[in-house]
Amino acid sequence: MAPSHSDVARFASLLNILDDALARRPEQPALGLRGDDGVDWHWTYRELGRRSKLAAFRLRAAGQRPGDRLITWSPSSPELPAVYFGAMRARLVVVPLDLRMTPDTVARIVGRAGATLAVLGTGRDAPDPRDSGLGDLPLTTTTALTAEPSSEPSDPAWLPPDWEAQVDAWERPGRDDLFEVVFTSGTTGVPKGVMLTHGAILSSIDAFGLVIPPLDHRVVSLLPLSHLMEQAAALFYATLVGADVLYIRSLKPRVIFEAIRDHRVTTLLVVPAVLEVFWNALMREVDRRGRRGQFERARRIARHLPYAARRWMFRSVHRQFGGDFRLAVTAGAYLPPALQVGWEDLGVIVLQGYGATECGIVACSTFDDHTPGTVGRVPSPSPILVRLSDDGEILVGGPTLFSGYWGDPEATASVMDAEGWYHTGDVARFDERGNLVLLGRVRNVIVLPNGFNVFPEDIENALHDAGLPETVVVETAPGRIEAIVLPPGRSTIDLAAGRGAGMDEHAAGRSPCRRTWRRPCRRVERGGRTPHPHRYRGARGERAPVDQPADRGVAALAGTGLPADAHAEGPARPGPGVGGVGGAAADRPHGRRRGRYPGGQVMKRPPSTWRCRWPTVWPPSRPAFDTTRNPRSATPSRRATSRMAEKIRASSRASSSRRSMTDTRWRRGITSTWTGARGAMSRNASTSSSS
C-alpha cells in the first residue's frame, strides 16, 4: 500500500521516499535498463538503497562536502538515480545537465555553479569527456560510484569494512536544504539556475498523488532524468508507489516498442510529440491493412463504452503495447484534442498537466475529469495556490515554488513579486468547470511539440552569426518556426509604402519580367489564406499591368506575429505570401490550372516549391529563368523550380559585382550558409524543462 497524502507531507526529505520503499517492498523490482541488444537487468529497491550508499561514501571520499555542487551528465540508467540518492545522503547539491547541451553551454553552467566534481555516464550515448566543456573539473562516472566494493586494499574500488555504518551515521538533509539547481537556459547568455529544495519537490510529489492513483505501475522511461518532470513523476513518485521503471538507452523505434511490449507497460510519461508518433505509426498500420473505415466505426462505438470495454474492442492494438497500457501522462507542450480523443477511444486515459521548473506542478486533469483542450484543475486538497492577474497571466504561490535563481537576485526579482507570487509568463482562463485553459505566452517564448522552449532571439542571433543580421523569427503554426530574412546588402523594405530595394526599377518598367494575377484563390475570397497565382504571363520585355493588387493577400499575414504596419499593402510577388511570409496554404496544392513561367514557357501548374522566405520584391531586376540556354526546361520538374527559386533569391540580392557569379557557385554558397544557420539554431534551441 502506498503512503497516504498525510504521510508524504510529514517526510523530512526526499530520502524518506527511498526509506519508505525499502521498508515496504525491499525485494520488488525498482529500476531496470534495456540495452541495444535487448537484454534487461534490474535492481530491487534494496539494491537501489545499497548502491546509493556506495555512491555517497565515494563522493565524500573524493573530497566532496555538504553544500558542494555536483555536476551530473549522463543518459538515463539505474545508476543515475543511485547517484542522486547518494548525493542526498552526502548533502550535496546536484546540477543535472541535458545530454543535448553544447560544450559552450556546459562550460557556462560549470562556471556559474562553481561545481567541484562532475559525474558522467557510460556507454555509447554518454558524453565524451574530451569534448565536453568541463575543462579541468575532476571527473568520475556513475558506474565507478555505484560499483561493488573490492576486497583488495590495493584496488581503487576497495572500501573499509564499516563504510555502510559510516554513511548511516551522517546527518540527513531537511526540507529546507537545497537538492538541485536545474539550469533551464544559457545557450547564448548568462545561464539561470533554478534552486529546488527537498520540500518544494516533496510538495509536487504530494500533488501527484492526488491526480494519479497508486496503481500497479510499470513504466518505460522515455524522457531524460535531467528534467524535473521525469525526476518528480517517473523517479520519486514512482518510487513512492512502488512502480517498476525501465530505462532505454537506444533510440531505435524497434527497441522502444519491444521494450514497451515486453515490460507490459501500464503507464507512460511522455511529451505530446511521443504520443503523436505512436498514433501515426498505428494509423499507418491500419491503412496498410485497409481497415481505416472499420477502425473509425469501432472508435465511434467505443467512445460510449467503459474504458475496459474499449481496451477489449481494440485488444489487437493493445497487444502491441503489452496488453496493459491504460494511462498516459503528458505535459510540456500543446496536446491536440483530437490526439487525446483518439487514444481515449482506444481505452487509454490521457492526463495532461501544466507546470514549470520554477513552480512544479500547477494543474493536472484527473481520472474523473480529463476534458480535451484543458490542462485540468489545481490538485485539491493541496497547498498550491493559483490565480490569474488582470491580464490573464498565471500566478503561482505555495510550497512548490523554487528558492530563486542561483546567484542571480535580479532575475529572481523579475519573476517574483513582493507578495511572493511567481509570474509564469503564460496567459490562461478558467472554463465553466474550473479547468485551466492555456491561451498563449506573455513573452515571445515558443514551445515546440516535443517539449522544448525555443527563444526567437537565440535563433536570430544564430542567423546573425551565420551572416544574416536582419531577421525576424515567428511561429506561423504550432511547432512551425519560420524566419523572415532580409538578404545582406539590401536596404530595409517598407511594406507600408510598397517600396524597397529594386522597387524603382519596378516603377520605371525596366524589368523584362512581369506577371498578372488572373484571379484570386477562393480561400482568399473567403477571407484569408495566402493568395496563390493560378497563371503567370511572361511579358517578353514589355510592361504588363498588375491586375491583382498585393493587398488581397494582407489577410494572410494575420496571426504571423508581425507588427501591424507589416500588414499594409506591399509589393505582390509569387510564392506563399506577401513580403516573404508563408502560411499553411503554402503547403497546399495549387490545382490543375495551367500557367506560364516568366519568359513565356508553359507549366502544368504553378510551382509549389516556390517557398522563398526572402522578403524581396517581384519582379527581379533581371530574368529569373532563361529558357534560351536550356530549351528542355520548358516544363521544369519540382527540382528545377527549386533551382529557379534560388535564382530569384540570387538576382534580388546580388550587387553588380556579384551578378557574374555562376548559379552553381551561388547554390553552393546559399546551401553552406543555411546549413550553418540550421546547425546553429539547433544548438541554440533552449531546453527549458516544463513539467
Please give the order of strands in the largest beta sheet: 2-1-10-9
Give the N-to-C terminal Cα separation: 27 Å
Radius of gyration: 29 Å
Q: In what range is the share of β-strand residues?
A: 15-25%
Q: Outline, from the CA principal axes?
A: globular
Number of strands: 24
Helical residues, percent: 25-40%
Q: How many strands, what sense, and barrel or not for the largest sheet?
A: 4 strands, mixed
Provide the low-confidence segments as ranges: 495-641, 655-691
Q: What class, by secondary structure content? A: alpha/beta
* Tally of helical runs: 21
Task: Please tell me the overall pLDDT.
Answer: 74
Structural summary, described in words:
The protein is 32% helix and 17% strand. By secondary structure, it is of the alpha/beta class. α2 packs parallel to α9 and α20 packs across α21. The chain starts with a helix and ends in a 7-residue tail after the last helix.
